[in-house]
Amino acid sequence: MAELAHYKDAHPLPFVITHYVNLISMILLILSGFIIHFPYLPAIMGICRGVHIFCGIVLVVNCIVRVILAFVLDSAPVGGTRQKVKDIKSFLPQADNKGQLIPWIKFYLFIQKDHPFSGKFNPLQKMAYDLIPLLILFMGYTGFCLWSVTADMPIFAAGTAAMGGLMSVRIIHYFMMFVFIIFMIIHVYMAVIEGGKPLMKLMFARKEHGGLTYDINVHDISGEDHTV
């Protein structure tokens, strides 16, 4: 199956930067979180707590910045085009995704060989990416409820009480870590199986890759680009 071209316009540099800030922060949070939960290395507990708190704050701030940028910056809403619209539109229902939910599920489950031509994010990706900012903010909130520096602030103390106390918050915070681990695994799987090497080269090395071109005005293939 021929694929849409991969252009930088779909993933502008500011979004790539926030993407990898998220990635690095999440990895460090998961590693430090496991060490904090299972303190078999007491000599580095202080370092792990510091890294955990720092990366948690970075993740929350980066999430807020990314959401704001979605309303401010433009990006291509589909592969194979350099035409741009406000980035937030890629996270909302698009004509280019209409009726594609079931075909994409079949594709990911290896029931269907080819996937439909879609917006930059297919329906399953949209649902996941729309949910992640809310999960990050909630994860950050539970973290601030547990952090001694902020735990007694009314906004966090009220949340701790509503969730049933510090132990309940710890359990929720720990459980949420596995939600993010599962998301990261699925995210990598979806990216690799759909975009393959061209997408990896674009995201890691900023190298474009030719392929079919797409017109966002007619919502259909408009040609083919072999110049990149």
TrEMBL record:
**Keyword match NADP:** no
The entry lists its GO molecular-function terms as: electron transfer activity; heme binding; iron ion binding
Annotated Gene3D superfamilies? Transmembrane di-heme cytochromes, Chain C (1.20.950.20)
Predominant location category: membrane
Gene Ontology cellular-component terms for this entry are: plasma membrane
Q: How does it sit in the membrane?
A: Multi-pass membrane protein
Q: Which family does it belong to?
A: Belongs to the HupC/HyaC/HydC family.
**What name goes with this protein?**
Ni/Fe-hydrogenase 1 B-type cytochrome subunit
The lineage is: Bacteria, Bacillati, Actinomycetota, Coriobacteriia, Eggerthellales
